[in-house]
Design a protein that fits this description.
CATH topology of the largest domain: Cobalt-precorrin-4 Transmethylase, domain 1
Number of strands: 10
Number of helices: 12
CATH architecture of the largest domain: 3-Layer(aba) Sandwich
Helix content: 25-40%
Length: about 290
């Protein structure tokens, strides 16, 4: 199959969004692109074949998942440089959002290859807009670190975040994660959104403790998105920063929208210590680890 110039261009990589549940959410353009490209790179070819069959699309598939990502990325780049049009799909949603794709996109850009998004459903944004929480400013954390000190540091960091927070979670870990959120975030408002766009779609609203009580005796299944209210506490309040280390205090102000330079100055003034001391602590911060969508 050769690239159909009405919908795709030779030597172009298409990042193609696919439904997160309801197959009828597939866009007309996405169908046409998947029909027209020379190759479809799929996270799980077995799942993608079902999608293609539903829309009566016949095309060549290449597996592209987290275990072969670099090796296959190099092969796909070679095909693209030969003038082939390639579409990248994940099992559901937009590739690269908590799914493989980022490395391929980066390599394509480095090689001067055109990368074109074909927009489609994304669980994070879909959950946000039905959460009832602030949609003006938000951050996407994806799946939290599984355990250990790194997880504790991540929870402490995002607890200071003033923007709405979006988290993906496994149904098997949901209850324990909510208990941890309650410990770090106190009893903020949340929305737990389950099985988006599917037959058993469900939204649970309330503060963390009330949502926990609703699911305490239930077996939870399906894809989960947790949307958490941002930290509305006054950042200058002693109850917020008094027990924090200097570096944590700097990160708190940065989470409130301050630049690193502004945060260093504010911490020095608030604590009555030299800016040089705060700078030595804050030099560890390269960029904010949270991802804006």
């Amino acid at each position: 199959m050769s690239a159909n110039n009405d919908y795709v261009q030779k030597g172009t990589l298409y990042i193609c969004g696919t439904p997160i549940g309801n197959l009828d959410d597939m866009s007309f353009r996405a169908i046409k692109v998947l029909e027209a490209v020379d190759f479809i790179a799929a996270e799980d070819t077995r799942r993608t074949i079902k999608l293609l069959n539903y829309f009566k699309i016949s095309n060549r598939l290449e597996s592209y998942h987290e275990h072969n990502e670099m090796k296959k990325a190099e092969k796909l780049i070679k095909l693209l440089k030969e003038g082939k049009a390639v579409a990248l799909v994940s099992d559901a949603g937009m590739p690269g959002i908590s799914d493989p794709g980022q490395k391929l996109v980066r390599l394509a850009i480095e090689e001067g290859i055109e990368v074109v998004p074909i927009p489609g459903p994304t669980a994070a944004i879909s959950a946000l807009v039905v959460s009832g929480l602030d949609t003006g400013k938000f951050v996407f954390e994806g799946f939290l670190v599984r355990k250990g000190r790194e997880r504790k540091e991540q929870l402490k960091r995002i607890a200071a975040e003033a923007r709405t927070i979006i988290i993906y979670e496994s149904p098997y870990r949901l209850k324990e994660t909510l208990k941890e959120l309650q410990a770090y975030f106190n009893n903020r408002r949340i929305a737990v959104v389950r099985e988006l766009t599917k037959l058993h779609e469900e939204k649970l609203y309330g503060d963390i403790s009330s949502v926990l009580s609703k699911i305490e005796t239930r077996e939870i299944k399906g894809e989960i998105v947790i949307v958490v209210e941002g930290n509305k506490a006054e950042p200058d309040g002693d109850d917020i920063w008094n027990e924090m280390k200097v570096l944590e205090h700097v990160k708190l102000y940065m989470a409130q929208g301050k630049s690193k330079k502004e945060a260093i100055k504010m911490v020095a003034e608030k604590r009555g210590i030299p800016k040089s001391r705060v700078y030595k602590e804050a030099i560890a911060i390269d960029v904010d680890n949270s991802r804006d969508i």
